[in-house]
Each structure stands twice: as structure tokens, then as C-alpha cells.
Amino acid sequence: MKQALLYLMLLFQTNTLLANYFSPAKPLHSASIVDDKKLVTIAFGSCFDQRNEDKIFRIIREANPDLVLLLGDNVYPDSEEYDPNLKSLREAYWKLGRSPEFSKLRERTPIMSIWDDHDYGLNDAGGDWPLKKNSEKLFEYIWIPEDDVRRTRDGIYFAKTIGPKNSRVQLIFLDTRFFRSSLLRAKGNANEKYQQDHSVYKTMLGHAQWSWLQKVLKESAQIRLIVSSIQVIADGHGWEAWRTLPNERERLFKLLNKSEAENIFIVSGDRHSAAIYQRKDATINPLWEITSSSLNKPLTGLVAVRKEEPGPFRIGDSYYGANFGIIHFDWLALEVSLSIHNSEGEPVRQKVVKLR
């Protein structure tokens, strides 16, 4: 009894210290996930600037999704200067917590999140970011329940399987920041920031996360969604993506083949544009990716002066307005609908995929 009392006192003190340290930020926990619920509609998006309007969360709520995925850049700090206290990032979360529409969404709908660079703490940052452990503690405080395994290890990768037998959806969230090696800067090309780095010593996920991914892909599921904050399939641009570390991308494709898992869909964000991609030559079965970005920080103003980037695996044109994505499961017809929706909720890109 004394030991239990001591543990409760210690837990209370620890939580109080964390709350004071991360003030004014508050945890943004959402409605609980029902593990055996048959998923029909999943909404997702990335790149939400808490300084801009929050109407998009109302539009998402009106789509009545069973689950919402936040793919990273869930807030934007005012400053990314070196600050061990992450004051600006904490204040960004505080502002997100005060969003009326986001509050209504998370009260009713389960939300699962991963980070990208700006809510990691620094634009384009990877494993060499000196404040990554500080940032991880803040992310855990904001998004992750106290009894979650992510609080016991480096990185914020995780997996969750939802649904009854024969209708299970496995969601695999990859951490493409905490362990990622430095990228190779492009030279002499104003339209390309990073070039491909073929070094065998560079990593995207790190040893522990690669081992974990190999294990979770063996778990039983009818459909798998792999969430990567940065694009996986997309080529034709010089910004952050798995294309910058081609050996790691090839390793991912080989692992997907080796696992013999079917019905794999990749969900990504980051780009401030949205599109649907398909690649037929990377894995045994055609591999699909849907990218949604940005929730309220679009590049609409640049469309008139910007050429559409080459997209060898993209289906149709990119969409540059504010947007979110929807994945809809038709379990009777054995079909998955991938769609991009504008800020009014209207579909602007769509593809229906037959399940195997």
C-alpha cells in the first residue's frame, strides 16, 4: 500500500512538473479509439498554421470521419531559433488548443498524429537536431497518453490495428525525423534543394525503427496505411522526400515485398500541395500514395507563376488550394476510395482502388 501511494505521489509530481515546464501548452487528447470498430471513413491532412483560420476542421468534422490522421506540421512556431525550452513551439500548441473548431473535432473524433519538421522544431531537421529529445517530450506531452509505449523509447513511430476480424485496418506511423541522416544539398539548381544521396551509411528510419517495422508488417490486417510525413513514391521535385535517400526507399520497397502484405496505401503530407500517385514497378502489387497538404497554408498564390512539377508516378495534376484527404472503405464492394477535398469539402481529386 505504501509503495502504491508513493508511486501515485511520484506520478502526480512528475505530471505537475511537466505541466509547468510545457506551460502554456496543454495536452490535446481526443475521443477514444474503439479497437473493434469497423472503419469506413478516415480523414487526414497536414500543415496547419495555428495563426490562420480553423474553418477546415469544421469541414472535416462535417464529413463525419471515424478517425482523423494529422500527418505533421500540425503547428508552426513563430520562431525556430535555438531554444532548449521550445517556448515558441509550446505557444503554437497553446494556440492550437484554443482553436474552437479543432476542439470540437477532437472532442468527437479520435485523432492520431505524427510530426514533420516544423512541429519537430526546425525546418528540414533530421536526426542531428540538437533539441530532438526536448521536442519529443513536448510531442508526447501534447499528443500521447501516459501509458503509451512511445514514452519509453526514442522516436514517436507507432502502429495501431482497428476493426473486427476480416475488416482490420493497420495504421503504421513512421518517424522520418528523429533518426534521419543529413541530406545532400543540391548545387547549381535553383529549383532543387536536395539531391539524391546514395551513401550506404545514411538512414531514414534508424536501426530500431526498421526492425520494428519488419515485425509490425507481419501482423494480421486486411488493409495497411503507412503514414509518412514526407512523400515516398513521388519523384520529379528537389524537396524533402524519400527520393533523397534512394537506398532507404528501395529498402522500404523490398521490405513490403518480403512481408507479402497486400492492400498497402501510403499517406503523406508536407508538400503544400495534394495529389494521388501510383507506382507499378516498385512492389509486387501496385503501390498507391495519397498526399494531402496544406490544411490552411496553401500555395494558391504561387500557382500562376509556378509550373507543374514533373510527376512520373502522379495521376493527374497536383492541387494547390487548402485541402484534406479522405480514405473511404467499401467493405462489401471491396474497394477503397482515395480523395482530396478542398476547403469547402468538395472532392477535387479521386481514385477508386479495388482490394485484393
What is the fold-level CATH name, i.e. the topology?
Answer: Purple Acid Phosphatase, chain A, domain 2
The name of the CATH superfamily reads: Alkaline phosphatase D (PhoD)
Total domain units: 1
Poorly predicted runs: 4-14
The number of helical elements comes to: 8
What is the percentage of strand-forming residues?
15-25%
Shape, per Cα inertia axes: globular
Give helix and strand order, one letter per element, not per position: HEHEHHEHHEEEEHEHEEEEEEE
Tell me, what is the CATH class? Alpha Beta
Can you put this structure into words, describing what you see?
This protein is globular. The protein has eight helices and 15 strands. It is α/β, with parallel strands linked by helices and 356 residues long. Helix 2 (55-62) runs parallel beside helix 4 (100-108). The chain starts with a helix and ends with a strand. It has helices spanning 2-22, 55-62, 87-97, 100-108, 117-120, 132-143, 207-216, 246-259, and strands at 41-45, 67-70, 111-113, 158-162, 169-173, 184-185, 194-195, 223-228, 264-268, 274-279, 287-291, 314-319, 323-330, 335-342, 347-354. The chain has a single domain (28-354), classed as Purple Acid Phosphatase, chain A, domain 2 (4-Layer Sandwich), CATH 3.60.21.70.
